[in-house]
Each structure stands twice: as structure tokens, then as C-alpha cells.
Amino acid sequence: MKDYFSGHSKQYATFRPTYPDELYRFIFGHLKTFDAAWDCATGNGQVARVLATQFEKVFATDISPQQLEHANKADNILYSVQPAEKNDFPDKTFDLITVAQALHWFDLDAFYREVNRTSKPGAWLAVWGYSHCSINPEIDFHFLKFYRETVGPYWDAARKLVEEQYQPIPFPFEEVKSPAFSIKVNWTVEEFAGYLGTWSATQQYIKKKGFNPVLEVMEKISPLWKDKLEVMFPVFLRMGKIG
After folding, report:
1. Per-residue pLDDT reduced to its tens digit, 107-155
2. Distance in angstroms (rounded) separating the CA atoms of residues 60 and 158
3. What's the number of domains the chain is made of?
4. Which of 104, 85, 116 is nearest to 164 (CA)?
């Protein structure tokens, strides 16, 4: 189990972007019942919070107690520290299982066994993530150099699966064709710097080098940033009926 986020869970909860309403509408449009959902690798609970508006109960799990300390609370969300690959949920429990920006960390065979075991007949699995952002050509130049060169060697090898939008990942379910989505946020330069600091590669760089590389790249980006700028993240989705 890889846990790259416990050490900066508060920062993660503050600066990570949230997913668009269109994504959730597409997912919910395929469901017939809304009794129970499992949000696996819930992190700060941002997906669980949305699921809780539709489902009677949401079971949200993560391997990081620190992440769950900062998670969104609701009466019908039940948080627990459990890995994706083994949980204590009863068989045939869930109408929907979700994984946001985390499938690339899993032991897929073990996770898929749990998906098949805990899902109701006709349930759905929805997994998604977002690629690196874009702002404008000037800022993107410095951002991509930071992403690929400065912290590039510190990304886990699994990061490549995100860049490839999970297409190489086996997905043994009755998959539906999904449209493209995007996250669009209007950020200050401080918010953008905060987001860069949440990256697992940035945190690994800090551990190895002893200083924060975000400070250096922001010296180049800050003069180019005027008030708030739109930051766009492409969002990809794979969704399929289980069993």
C-alpha cells in the first residue's frame, strides 16, 4: 500500500480541485437505485460528500487516518480506515463504487475481487482522474518544466497511468463510452502554489533534497499571474457495469 498523502493531509484538503457537476450527473444517470455507495480511497471525502446527496448511505474508506481527519462530514457518510484490496463490507452491498484519482495506486486484482464481491447485481464502478493543468502558454512553459524536469524524477511510476488516462489499465466490466469533462477553477497565485505543494512528487523532492522546489518555480510564475486566472484540468472517466 502506497501512502504519499498522510504527511500533508490538511494542505491536500485545502488545495485539491473538486470535480465538475457534469461528471456526477453522467454517473448518476446510469443508476437505478441509490441505497449504498462505496467511495474507495476517499482522501478528504470530496467525492463522498457529493455521493451523500444522492445515496441513503455512503461508505468511504482510505488507508490514511490523517486524510480522514480532514474529510467532509455528513450524517450518512461512514468513514473507515481500510485498504482498497480488503474490506469488511458484506457481500452484495453497493449500487455504485467510485475511485477518484487513486486507481493507479491499487493492486488491481485484489481490488477487483472486492468490487465483484461487495457490489449488488447491476451495480456500477466509476473510476476517474485528471491530467496536468493548463493556464496560458507563458505560465504553462514554466509549469511543465517543473512537472517534467524538477520533480519529474520523483513521481511514482504509477503516475504514467494518469497521463495515459488509465487506458492501459485492465477494466473487466461492461464499459460505457464516457464524454470528456474538465475542472475549471479561478485561482490566485497562492492557491496555485498550494496545489503544486500537494503533489506526491513535490513531497518526495522535499524529503530527499530538504527544501521546497515550489518556491523556485513560483519566482518565475508569480510575475505572470494577474489577480485570479482560470486553471483547467482535463478529467477522464472509465465506467462499467459490474457482473
Report:
1. 999 999 999 999 999 999 999 999 899 999 999 999 999 999 999 999 9
2. 23
3. 1
4. 104
